[in-house]
Amino acid sequence: MDIEAINLLSYEDFVSTFGNVVERCPIITAAVWSKRPYPSVAALEAAINDFIEALPESGKEGILRCHPDLAGKDLQSGTLTPESREEQGQAGLDRMDASEVSRMTRLNSEYKERFGFPFVVCARMNNKTTIVEQLRDRLRNTHAQERARAIEEVKKICHLRLRGLVLSNQKNKL
Amino acid sequence: MDIEAINLLSYEDFVSTFGNVVERCPIITAAVWSKRPYPSVAALEAAINDFIEALPESGKEGILRCHPDLAGKDLQSGTLTPESREEQGQAGLDRMDASEVSRMTRLNSEYKERFGFPFVVCARMNNKTTIVEQLRDRLRNTHAQERARAIEEVKKICHLRLRGLVLSNQKNKL
Hints:
Two copies of one chain form a homodimer.
Chain A: H1 3-7, H2 11-18, H3 26-32, H4 41-54, H5 57-65, H6 73-77, H7 82-90, H8 98-115, H9 128-138, H10 143-171
């Protein structure tokens, strides 16, 4: 799907295709439809990032709170979004032994207790070892530092999801 | 559930209880958790409304685009959120004959073509006759008038969903 085809989508098709590039926040995709046409996919991605950056700090925390825990109860119970399931799977989070799961659960709890939102990291750019290392490192950040850091991860996830959807829709000629 | 109990909820329980007071926009509920404690349920509702009002116009349109059509394909196919299903049912939209469904579909299409978002109305304060009347009336608004009008309906829906959840969780002692 090239940018000309994307620009021609109805808001319904646009949201149904790209609505989860930011996890469980279809409002963001639905909002940037207002600003089409876009000269490129990169410009569409920039509009999403601009929308996120213009939100108040509570809104950025709202985005983070729409994310599931890594290797958490949604992974165990099969209630992850398809995108998250694939990403957590690629990082090996669905193939951890009991002690690894228990360590991750403990670190996730500590993180949520400290910051009031879940640990968000671009799983596709990581594996279970580097994820645990980052969780430990980022627990040392201040609240404001960590909110900004986590939003950068949201943008990386969005970048890969958006590129993936554009490519797969090209392949399928949708 | 009184406001003291609401203020004590983790963000996860807060979002899982109140995440759909604005249709398919859990980010809004998740954002206002940052500003707890609230002195009253009315203050919580005001924080939601303030968050909505502070969004850029594209963000308000984004909220509207997360709403289903009234008596549309999500009602027919059973893919409405539970809240929308109940509301559309109460307004009698699930008991329309073929000619009523066809008229509603035509008016919805005309509205979406004109404004670029779906017709949103507080179904619980209406019935299928007044909904069709309002659809016809509001088609005459300018784009900016209608966006503001539709956001007022989002707030009415939010008000009733929030009050309903607070009351039902009181009854169930959750």
